[in-house]
């Protein structure tokens, strides 16, 4: 009888213990999740530092504002979850709707080429995921960015707002016609390849301003051009390096 009573007591104690396990484990899981999140954030930060050092500074980017921007903007937050492992690799990545987030070096290079400061009002053509916009927003006073694919534009606007990039305004429209109601701009950056430099963008560029744009050439490839407008309105075009961008989409906005 004593042995039977002992068994019953053990069973009762076991039942009580297991009934409280969910409450005990909940705190453990919360702590574990917090540690995991912190570990991931630290890992991304290390990857970002390596990206800046090996892919950007090592290739000749010298502008401190650009380097600081590339170091501060969390590129992985602008990459679809399925591709985040490669967020800081030296390559573009798909973001949906046939579009891509540009290679980190190209983002840094085009930003440096714009040569803008904290007083600049800038227009971007091709918002995409919003990554280039986020980088520029840490440097300039105000950035207007246009995306023709509605789904991407809406997602980018929400993403930029949630991450605190409050000086960026996203428009869903045809980038080829620019944003005449907000012109002129100190600088214009185009993140998709155009068959030629759009005239409306040249007109919306402030005298003394510059545009960086990839343009198709006669060899079925693209050239990254710097377009400068002097105080008299004259245009000078400089050809820099060959690049590869998705084509600039023209026409009415596309709702995916």
Explain what the structure shows.
This protein is α/β, with parallel strands linked by helices. The chain has a single domain (54-243), classed as Rossmann fold. Helices cover 39% and strands 23% of the residues. The protein contains 6 helices and 9 strands; from the N terminus they run ααββαβαβαββαβββ. It has helices at residues 2-56, 64-72, 104-114, 131-137, 150-162, 199-203; strands at 93-96, 99-101, 121-125, 142-147, 168-172, 185-190, 205-216, 222-229, 235-243. The strands form 2 sheets. It has a 7-stranded mixed beta sheet with strand order 5-4-3-6-7-8-9. A two-stranded antiparallel sheet has the order 1-2. Strand 6 (185-190), helix 6 and strand 7 (205-216) form a beta-alpha-beta unit. The longest helix is centred in the N-terminal third of the chain and has 55 residues, at 2-56. The radius of gyration is 25 Å and the shape is globular. The model is unreliable at 15-29 (pLDDT under 50).
- What is the strand arrangement across the widest sheet? 5-4-3-6-7-8-9
Number of helices: 6
CATH homology superfamily: Vaccinia Virus protein VP39
CATH topology (fold) name: Rossmann fold
Number of strands: 9
Tell me the Rg in angstroms: 25 Å
Q: Mean pLDDT score, rounded? A: 88
Shape: globular
Domain count: the total is: 1
Note poorly predicted spans: 15-29
* SSE string: HHEEHEHEHEEHEEE
Helix content class: 25-40%
Q: In the CATH classification, which architecture applies?
A: 3-Layer(aba) Sandwich
Q: Major sheet: size, sense and barrel closure?
A: 7 strands, mixed
Classified by CATH, the class is Alpha Beta
Name the beta content range.
15-25%
């Amino acid at each position: 009888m004593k042995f039977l009573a002992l068994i019953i007591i053990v069973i009762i104690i076991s039942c009580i213990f297991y009934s409280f396990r969910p409450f005990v484990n909940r705190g453990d899981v919360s702590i574990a999740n917090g540690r995991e999140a912190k570990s991931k954030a630290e890992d991304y930060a290390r990857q970002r530092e390596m990206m800046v050092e090996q892919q950007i500074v090592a290739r000749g980017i010298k502008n401190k504002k650009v380097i600081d921007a590339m170091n501060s903007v969390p590129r992985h937050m602008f990459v679809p979850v399925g591709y985040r492992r490669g967020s800081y690799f030296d390559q573009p990545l798909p973001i949906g709707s046939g579009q891509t987030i540009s290679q980190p070096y190209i983002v840094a290079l085009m930003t440096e080429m714009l040569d803008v400061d904290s007083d600049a009002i800038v227009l971007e053509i091709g918002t995409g995921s919003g990554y280039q916009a986020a980088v520029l927003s840490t440097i300039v006073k105000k950035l207007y960015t246009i995306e023709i694919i509605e789904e991407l534009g809406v997602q980018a606007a929400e993403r930029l707002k949630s991450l605190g990039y409050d000086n960026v305004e996203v428009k869903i429209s045809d980038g080829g016609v620019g944003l005449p109601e907000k012109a002129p701009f100190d600088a214009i950056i185009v993140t998709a390849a155009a068959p030629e430099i759009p005239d409306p963008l040249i007109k919306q560029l402030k005298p003394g301003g510059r545009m960086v744009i990839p343009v198709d050439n006669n060899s079925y490839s693209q050239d990254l051009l710097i377009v400068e407008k002097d105080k008299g309105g004259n245009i000078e075009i400089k050809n820099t390096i060959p690049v590869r961008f998705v084509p600039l989409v023209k026409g009415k906005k596309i709702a995916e």
